[in-house]
Specification:
Blueprint lengths: L2 E6 L4 H8 L9 E5 L3 H15 L3 E4 L3 E2 L4 E4 L3 E7 L2 E6 L8 H8 L7 E5 L8 H9 L3 E5 L6 H10 L4 E3 L1 H12 L2
Parallel strand pairs: 1-2, 1-8, 2-5, 3-5, 8-9, 9-10
Antiparallel strand pairs: 4-7, 6-7
Length: 181
């Protein structure tokens, strides 16, 4: 089963909503890893559920992946246990949830199952892992014309030329296509 992963930081929450508004029930898991203060995560999860009608789970413990949207509990990092399970850990990072922790956890999984969307943001969180993930078969989509270009530019640089660039609407269409199988 494909897994659709959305990572980002500043300026990304509204784009996440646009991508998730596919007007049909999810049939694949969507993992969202956006830098947020801990107190906002639950509110953002509720907002996603209200705006999209998707089932949304705030991950608090080891959980089997199903066809819904997953976000980590506040101040925690989200990580894959294997291709079918996800968990959270107390964050040791300056920013959380840490994209680096999520990407590192993906290394022990079948990379062909993952499509990673990099939205706008600050910093270079996750940059150190993307080259290896790409070489192993993870597909990367980088947002074209984000509000905050630093995170996508830093990850694009690490991917060299091995990624696709798309506008938010095209990313939404990709999710819809993957959802339909």
């Amino acid at each position: 089963m494909k897994k659709f992963i959305i990572v980002g930081s500043a300026g990304s929450p509204s784009d996440v909503l646009k991508i998730l508004k596919i007007d049909e029930k999810l049939r694949i898991p969507v993992i969202v890893c956006l830098h947020f203060t801990g107190s906002v995560m639950e509110t953002f999860a509720q907002h996603i559920a209200k705006e999209t009608d998707h089932n949304v789970e705030v991950v608090q413990k080891c959980t089997s992946l199903d066809a819904k949207v997953y976000l980590p509990e506040g101040e925690k990092d989200i990580a894959l246990v294997n291709n079918e399970m996800i968990t959270v850990h107390k964050s040791q990072s300056k920013v959380h949830p840490s994209i680096s922790v999520l990407f590192e956890s993906m290394k022990k999984c079948d990379p062909r199952d993952f499509i990673v969307v990099v939205l706008g943001g600050l910093g270079d969180d996750g940059k150190e892992h993307v080259g290896e993930l790409r070489k192993n078969g993870v597909r990367f989509i980088v947002q074209k014309n984000p509000k905050f270009k630093y995170l996508p530019e830093n990850i694009s640089e690490a991917l060299e030329e091995h990624y696709e660039k798309m506008e938010v609407e095209k990313i939404r269409e990709l999710l819809l296509t993957l959802n339909r199988g």
